[in-house]
């Protein structure tokens, strides 16, 4: 995958995403005239799918202004696949934003996407452990179950039922050209591709719309999926206006952080499934070993130039994010110290930044009854909402008999 590492002025990392970054989401085959199933002249997936990262960053900057004025207008839905431990890409890409929004007073729903783990692997005995591990990561990062809802989507049947009408609103061609799905298929190592792999972006639409989420803090790879959700909401509202003629669903926005695509130790997107991630819960020694093995380049002097030097710049950005500093200044300070000093700086910065998270997570892991209870409570609250939304959908579609 060709990744564009994008970096903020790190001091402003989250509160003010950069106004513009090079586009890097990859081609989407956008432009195929492929309207909604059942006819209609509406254009297909919008420009964001074609790689308009800059537009998404501009929109995120606008939303930051709205959050500053009134955070309570937002209902946030976001989540993760239980495919491994959360890593630094999650932390700086979305997790920190979730906690910030929760603390500012927005309503936060955090989803453990356990069905979505099945897109490229089988459910095995370890899935349950990974789900609990994810919840521990959330709790240690500061997501507070007294204020926010943490739940697994497999536990909410009414949410999953939305998938059927939603699937009828998209075409197979639209599903087939999603760039993130294509990238995931390329990395899946599987000879055949499951139907769930192609349809999970529509399932994500159900995840977001069941609670009428209007803001989704995500990394860059999720932009095409957010476009699918917006498309599903728009088409549903057009086709099935509610009884009063009003829209049933909002069209949610993506909220990108200042690190929408953090690279892993191999220079590709940092991912749980690709063996290139630094887990938040890793020990200080594991972290040092992983960073020692990270790719760099042959130029001695360290600089911050994401387009020309993605691997080195990724390490500089990581240090800068952990230190709440500007990556250009961090690179200048390391200068001729080269890759060895850069890696030492990153290791110390990451270990220091994550020490409180790691201590808290270890404490929480002593009693797995607690994350289980959190999931049960969250599942109950999510079901109540999903049932109410499904009733509205039935009314709009005329299928309440
Ligand atoms: P997997 O390899 O199993 O797909 P992942 O590391 O890609 O795992 P996900 O659970 O798919 O993680 O993604 C959860 C959230 O974290 C999404 O919002 C995604 O955009 C964000 N995210 C994942 N990786 C990164 C990254 N490297 N940089 C920034 N955000 C990221
Ligand atoms: Mg992923």
List keywords for this structure.
binds magnesium ion; 401 residues; disordered N terminus; binds adenosine-5'-triphosphate; 3-stranded parallel beta sheet; two-stranded parallel sheet; single chain; mainly alpha; globular
Beta-strand content: 5-15%
Derived structural class:
mainly alpha
Number of helices: 14
Q: Spans of 5+ residues with little confidence (pLDDT < 50)? A: 1-35, 39-50
What is the distance, rounded to the nearest whole angstrom, between the alpha carbons of the first and last residues? 49 Å
Ligand catalogue: adenosine-5'-triphosphate, magnesium ion
In which range does the helix fraction lie? 40-55%
> Major sheet, described briefly?
3 strands, parallel
Structural summary, described in words:
- With 401 residues, this protein is mainly α.
- The protein contains 14 helices and 5 strands.
- The protein has helices at residues 53-69, 88-104, 127-141, 157-161, 163-167, 172-176, 179-188, 195-209, 223-239, 284-292, 310-323, 327-334, 338-364, 369-397; strands at 75-80, 107-112, 149-152, 215-217, 253-255.
- It has a 3-stranded parallel sheet with strand order 1-2-3. Strands 4-5 form a two-stranded parallel ribbon.
- Strand 2 (107-112), helix 3 and strand 3 form a beta-alpha-beta unit.
- The longest helix has 29 residues, at 369-397.
- Residues 1-35 and 39-50 have low confidence and may be disordered.
- The chain binds adenosine-5'-triphosphate and magnesium ion.
- Adenosine-5'-triphosphate is lined by residues 80-81, 83, 89-90, 93-94, 218-219, 221-222, 259-262, 269-274.
